[in-house]
């Protein structure tokens, strides 16, 4: 017999490192942590960006029809780069908004949500040594995806300007410094990531701001990965301008969209890329060698949803017209709720989100000197555990070097039922009374 502790199994145990270097430093994910905390403690979840109201009836009916009346082949593989009915109607929609003819087979590719579209783009275009300009605050997956591709993120901030006459700050008050942005471009710059409307601020980039970005892209021969998942969700009469429509930008831009955000069905995970074939051919290569295929039945239902919207395009009954009106009312309700308790919101021009200054409540969660954890993270965790209200710290959307720049701001999602927002109001009002009486 072999001596205890010297079994053949123990001798065979691996000792060499198994983790690929490209995963170093990106194993932690704020959404995993905060979703778990919200599920455990929160009574009201204004954290993660998904609606708690139903997807529109016409989309649900489309899925039912696809299941019950559609051909049995909808349960099988479809075209790898996108179900033909879906890429065709997407091409028709984007021909309207981009003002150019599109080939559905070469200018559109369907992905498993916008997340996979982003991953495919970074893998397709970014090499070791390449730099990618990322505008802060940014959706948190950009940085690790750039790193996994071997690139380096170069950050440039949106800087807030104080509003005049005591007005609430707007997301439009957060602006790029033209000289600072220009300084981030070099011979190593391969791409810039643009997110408009922006998550988390809700900023809708103006034509002038987009023209500045476009000018630098053309000057330095740089690609633009344009994350436009909230393209239909703009408020107060703002216009969403697609950077691919600007002079010199179609040939260097991949535009990314999401059926989840477009049709309030985030769990369906249907996204897409739109762009020139010279770019999308490389995105297709990554797709075919990773995910390869997206759920046929969901693509069919989304195609039917877009067919309806194509028929109603620009008309009052269009979901693309109705949804932003509904969300603007929800935004305004949450602003009213926050202002009433002394929390100062930054009024968003678009998206599901608003960022707010929670300084009024800081005394309940004292600063911890020399803490490695940003204050907004500790505040948000404390609020979930002690008040049952979930939100997301703004530091989540900043690079490591800049996580402490705005310690008193957190992000709320207002794409919720009115009852959910009123429940949040009850929590905040009770909290405010407790502070006043103590």
From TrEMBL:
GO terms for cellular component: cytosol; mitochondrion. The keyword Cytoplasm applies. Pfam families: Aminotran_1_2 (PF00155). InterPro entries: Aminotransferase_I/II_large, Kynurenine-oxoglutarate_AT, PyrdxlP-dep_Trfase, PyrdxlP-dep_Trfase_major, PyrdxlP-dep_Trfase_small. Pathway: Amino-acid degradation; L-kynurenine degradation; kynurenate from L-kynurenine: step 1/2. The keyword Cytoplasm applies. It catalyses: 3-phenylpyruvate + L-glutamine = 2-oxoglutaramate + L-phenylalanine; L-kynurenine + 2-oxoglutarate = kynurenate + L-glutamate + H2O; an S-substituted L-cysteine + H2O = a thiol + pyruvate + NH4(+). It is found in: Cytoplasm, Cytosol. GO terms for molecular function: cysteine-S-conjugate beta-lyase activity; glutamine-phenylpyruvate transaminase activity; kynurenine-oxoglutarate transaminase activity; pyridoxal phosphate binding. Its EC number is 2.6.1.64, 2.6.1.7, 4.4.1.13. Homodimer. This is Kynurenine--oxoglutarate transaminase 1. The lineage of its organism: Eukaryota, Metazoa, Chordata, Craniata, Vertebrata.
């Amino acid at each position: 017999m072999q001596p205890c502790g010297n079994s053949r199994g123990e001798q065979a145990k691996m000792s060499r490192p198994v983790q690929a270097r490209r995963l170093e430093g990106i194993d932690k994910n704020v959404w995993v942590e905060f979703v778990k905390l919200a599920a455990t403690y929160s009574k009201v979840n204004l954290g993660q960006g998904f609606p708690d109201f139903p997807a529109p009836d016409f989309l649900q009916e489309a899925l039912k029809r696809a299941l019950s009346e559609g051909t049995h082949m909808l349960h099988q593989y479809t075209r790898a780069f996108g179900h033909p009915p879906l890429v065709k109607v997407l091409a028709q929609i984007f021909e309207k908004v981009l003002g150019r003819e599109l080939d559905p087979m070469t200018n559109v590719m369907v992905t498993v949500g916008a997340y996979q579209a982003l991953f495919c783009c970074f893998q397709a275009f970014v090499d070791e040594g390449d730099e990618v300009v990322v505008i802060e605050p940014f959706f948190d997956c950009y940085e690790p995806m750039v790193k996994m591709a071997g690139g380096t993120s170069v950050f440039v901030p949106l800087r807030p300007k104080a509003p005049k006459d005591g007005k609430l700050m707007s997301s439009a008050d957060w602006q790029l410094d033209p000289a600072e942005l220009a300084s981030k471009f070099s011979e190593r710059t391969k791409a810039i990531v643009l997110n408009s409307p922006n998550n988390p601020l809700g900023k809708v980039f103006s034509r002038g701001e987009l023209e500045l970005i476009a000018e630098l892209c053309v000057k330095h021969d740089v690609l633009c990965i344009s994350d436009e998942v909230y393209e239909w969700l703009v408020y107060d009469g703002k216009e969403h301008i697609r950077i691919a429509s600007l002079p010199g930008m179609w040939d260097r831009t991949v535009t990314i969209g999401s059926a989840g955000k477009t049709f309030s069905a985030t769990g369906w995970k249907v996204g897409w890329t739109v762009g020139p074939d010279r770019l999308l051919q490389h995105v297709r290569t990554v797709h075919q060698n990773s995910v390869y295929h997206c759920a046929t039945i969901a693509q069919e239902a989304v195609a039917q949803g877009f067919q309806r919207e194509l028929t109603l395009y620009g008309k009052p009954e269009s979901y693309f017209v109705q949804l932003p009106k509904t969300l603007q009312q929800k935004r305004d309700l949450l602003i009213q709720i926050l202002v009433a308790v002394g929390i100062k919101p930054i009024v968003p021009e678009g998206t599901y989100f608003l960022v707010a200054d929670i300084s009024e409540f800081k005394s309940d969660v004292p600063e911890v000197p020399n803490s490695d954890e940003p204050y907004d993270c500790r505040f948000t965790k404390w609020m979930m555990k002690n008040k049952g209200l979930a939100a997301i710290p703004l530091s989540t959307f900043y690079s490591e070097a800049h996580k402490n720049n705005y310690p008193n701001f957190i992000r709320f999602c207002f794409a919720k039922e009115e009852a959910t927002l009123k429940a949040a109001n009850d929590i905040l009002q009770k909290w405010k009374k407790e502070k006043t009486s103590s």
